[in-house]
Amino acid sequence: MSLTLMTAAVACGPAHQDAGKPSTGPSSQATTATPGRGRASASPTASAGAACGTAQLRWKLTLLADKPGKVPTALLSVTNTSPAPCAFDGYPKMHAYAGKGPAVWSEPKAKAPVRLLLDHGETVNFPLFYPASPSADGSCAIPVDDAPRIEVLPPHPASADYGASLQITGPRGRHVTPVFCDTIHMGAPRPQ
């Protein structure tokens, strides 16, 4: 199995619409990481593959901590369930909302997008950093007593790809009520 990472410079655009889009600037060097071996080798181009779509992906969202800090609050995992490899070009887009009311969106922590080539059965984890409890003054983007709906889209979805709904679970696999009080910052992907 191989995981191909290509980083490129990207121009900043609207935070919730252009986050994770590939750069149109000069190409950069690709990095190929082999899961489990901890090695990376440089190559001038990344392997090509069809874009990953929701139908071939399995998502999982796990709450790790309920206090903001330097450790991730949650972990978003994505697995390629199709028999063919697919390209995951950029960051997924995740949002939580309460009915027609308030919503919270994800945005990458880093400004350089990543190109991943996911082989069959391969999983990549995205650490998520966000406040999961109200601030000292009690404010929270989505009221704490609401149970927000969570949706995720792969990068650059096809026009008929509406993403997937997620349930958040605790570390032991039990469903928990999610609390999102501010922007969800998505860290760089990590192979599992």
Q: N-to-C SSE series?
A: EEEEEEEEEEEEEEE
Helix % is under 10%
- SS element count, helices: 0
Radius of gyration: 17 Å
Mean pLDDT: 75
Largest sheet: 10 strands, mixed
CA(first)-CA(last) distance = 12 Å
- The best one-word shape is globular
* Strand residues, percent: 35-45%
- Count the E strands: 15
Structural class: mainly beta
**Stretches with pLDDT under 50, minimum 5 residues:** 1-46
Describe the SSE topology.
Layout: E1 3-6, E2 30-34, E3 39-43, E4 57-63, E5 74-80, E6 86-89, E7 93-97, E8 103-108, E9 115-118, E10 123-129, E11 149-153, E12 164-166, E13 168-169, E14 184-186, E15 190-191
Parallel strand pairs: 4-13, 8-14
Antiparallel strand pairs: 1-2, 2-3, 4-5, 5-10, 6-9, 7-8, 7-11, 10-14, 10-15, 11-12
Which key features would you list for this structure?
globular, 3-stranded antiparallel sheet, 192 residues, mainly beta, 36% strand, 10-stranded mixed sheet
Outline the structure in words.
With 192 residues, the chain is mainly β. The chain is 0% helix and 36% strand. It has no helices and 15 strands. The strands form three sheets. Strands 4, 5, 7, 8, 10, 11, 12, 13, 14 and 15 form a ten-stranded mixed sheet that branches. Strands 1-2-3 form a three-stranded antiparallel sheet, with no helix packed on it. Strands 6-9 form a two-stranded antiparallel sheet. Strand 7 (93-97) and strand 8 form a beta hairpin. The protein is globular. The model is unreliable at 1-46 (pLDDT under 50).
